[in-house]
Amino acid sequence: MVLNHPAQKIVSLDPSVTEILFALGLNNEVVGVTDYCDYPEGARSKSKVGGYLDPNIEAIALLEPDLVVTTLKTDTPKLIQQLENFGIKVFVLDPKRIEDIFENISSLAKLTYREEIAKQLVDALKERLNEIKRKVNGIYRPGVFLEMGTDPLISVGPGSFANDLIEIAGGRNVFSHCSSRYPRFTLEEVLLADPEVIIICSMSSDDACVAQKRWWEKWTNISAVRNGQIYVVEANLITRPGPRMVDGLMQIAKAIHPHIFLEP
Amino acid sequence: MKVLSLKKWLITVSLLTILLVGTIIFCSFQGSADINLKDVIKIFSNPLSQNWWNTKAVILLKVRLPRILLACLVGAALAVSGVVMQALLRNPLADPYVLGVSSGSALGAIIAILLGLNINIGVLPSIPLFGFAGGLLTILFVYHISKIHRKISVQTMLLVGVVTGAILAAIIMFIISIAGPNKLQGIIFWLMGSLSSQEYPMVLIVSFYVLIGILILLYHARGLNLLVLGEESALQLGLEVERTKKIAFIGASLITGAAVSVSGLIGFVGILIPHLMRMIIGSDHRLLLPVAGLSGGIYLVLADTLARTLLAPTEIPVGVITAICGGPFFIYLLTKKGRVSFFQ
Prior knowledge:
heterodimer; A: 264 residues; alpha/beta; Rossmann fold; 2 domains; 5-stranded parallel beta sheet; 4-stranded parallel beta sheet; elongated; B: 344 residues; mainly alpha; ABC transporter involved in vitamin B12 uptake, BtuC; two-stranded antiparallel sheet; 14 helices
């Protein structure tokens, strides 16, 4: 897809896309975002066009964008068709792994003529990613349990970004053998897997995370509990394929290998 | 109705009790961790040793057992409540949820989830407390609306209950549609029903409500037998109809509310077990109530064990198992028997 002139009015239909667009300095060009686009601060004051699964076509059309950017979901083909009726071009991203983020930043930069900024951004992100990879190369990989949901317990399996991040950060996801991306399971499985690190994914208030951390501390049979290796990481950093995912990776790396990644 | 002898009652109830205890013990040994009789003997023969709480002991006594006991209580509560609701409303389609208790509990629990109240009030988690309160408020509302000239019309109550449930369900749908994705997961899983992550204090409180409720209902079993014949006849036979109805409604709602508040919405137990047991032992409530309670407990313990072991390490929602295993069996029995032996 090529635009004859840089996009002037952009609507983002995914929080990760919004984060990329703002990182490219397109603060003024972004005219509409979803209800869930809460980062950076500037995104909160943009016009809202509905949820990221069910955006409001009329709200998008009223903004008269010359470009709509989204990530691939079940209803995306229908959405493209509906927006084409208004003559609106739709650009679809489909990130699967952390490396895809760099590609996506570059291709969005091409459409918006921001290749200069994009190159700097991608180079810096790649540098940080490679530094983490270098530091964990060849060292012991502790078992990691990443807790996505509390009641019932939900973790991450193969095909999820968080599973990738754990592997890159030098850990071993104790539920990497599960068949689904977000497997649900019982406490018994955690006790059996005996993870050395527990990472609680924070989605709600800090109170809930503190309560959950305290709850884990009762199960002293788990190595992570005995060694005090229970950490909290913000969910958005490890589920949104945007520039901040490298921050999320860094937080996971610090949790798994504190002696390497925390300044003494 | 056939005469019920004390001997028959004792034999049936004790046989089922033994079966329930056997099921609990059998299911305690099922799971991902390989725990056998030898391990149990080792755990209990050496209670003062340093590493008494080894992983196997923790899994058996702190993870599996409270969950199994909870499944037992919830299953018993739903089955008994189903029997009582069907008798009171004289409707074979009635189940513990028919008067809107479930939607009320669900709304209470969802409000707790939305407010981010994932904290403890005393020893009790707030979500079950809100669920219990929501269920009780709903039943009180339905009960008082249906009261006309100090009398409860069963038909009115059924309609009021169904409509109240529908209104509350609509509110739940509305909340789901506007809730953020991070709250959504908690809400959906609560609605799917689950018996995981409950500990002994909660089991103790639920058992208090469920056992007291079941005892009260058992005490009024003869009254239920008469009510099934019709309110006129019951009145002529000397039953205090309004009082019996009131106690039975409140008792059944209390145990449903307690069950729903800790397990979410687990379907099918409350309709399958009552009909199944009526087919097998008849509809004398003095026997039917304890039999339904015990077999409801057995059924849910087995279903939950399948839910946590079938696709281990992944867990399946227990409501899926109760419906998929129970449904076809129920239909088979119906076709074989020709009809539901509802109230003879």
